[in-house]
Write a structure and sequence with these properties.
By secondary structure, the chain is mostly helical. It has one domain: YutG-like (Orthogonal Bundle). It has nine helices and no strands. The termini are far apart. Helix 3 packs across helix 9. The chain binds magnesium ion. Magnesium ion (MG) binds next to helix 9. Magnesium ion binds next to helix 9.
Length: 175
């Protein structure tokens, strides 16, 4: 039988939720970052809209492929399955590696310049689950989250930007 490679949005969403959970990431923790980022600009922003945006993003095909690939690279790095030097570079989560940030930017890019600056903010300030992933994967620890911290940060940035767009649209209809 042929292996399944095309998934519906519901299936992609479910598979992403499952994998993220396996790696210690709950959707609420991603929505939390989006919520805090947007509440600096929109005081009445709702957590529910942030969570709904995270869920929507996790059903998109591009994001599905990125989440699934990023998590597999991290897992295989934990198991030492790559060859050196890239194995050691990814395990060390070297600041100058940069490919994890390129992937993060690719996700954030779907939400334009604001999406990218929102990702930059999260990448530099490392709020909530991003800080946890980053520190849990650093040093001599067995865990590796080199790709996942950026992917999670980028989904939070994209969700936060999407919320800003929804709020602007609502405002435009009121005026
Ligand atoms: Mg990283």
């Amino acid at each position: 039988m042929d292996k399944k490679v095309i998934f519906s949005r519901e299936e992609m969403y479910e598979l992403n939720v499952e994998r993220l959970k396996e790696r210690g990431v709950e959707l609420e923790a991603i929505a939390e970052i989006a919520y805090h980022q947007q509440s600096r600009y929109i005081p009445n922003v709702s957590f529910e809209v942030c969570l709904e945006s995270v869920k929507k993003l996790l059903s998109l095909r591009d994001i599905f492929h990125i989440v699934q690939l990023g998590i597999e690279i991290d897992r295989m790095t934990e198991q030492g399955l790559f060859r050196s030097p890239i194995q050691d570079i990814m395990k060390a989560d070297l600041g100058m590696f940069g490919i994890d940030e390129i992937i993060g930017l690719a996700v954030a890019q779907n939400y334009g310049a604001i999406g990218q600056t929102n990702f930059g903010d999260i990448d530099v300030n490392k709020p909530g689950i991003v800080a946890k992933l980053n520190s849990d994967g650093k040093g001599d620890k067995p865990e590796c989250h080199t790709f996942l911290d950026d992917i999670v940060g980028a989904i939070a940035a994209a969700a936060s930007t999407r919320v800003a767009q929804i709020m602007s649209e609502e405002l435009a209809h009121k005026e």
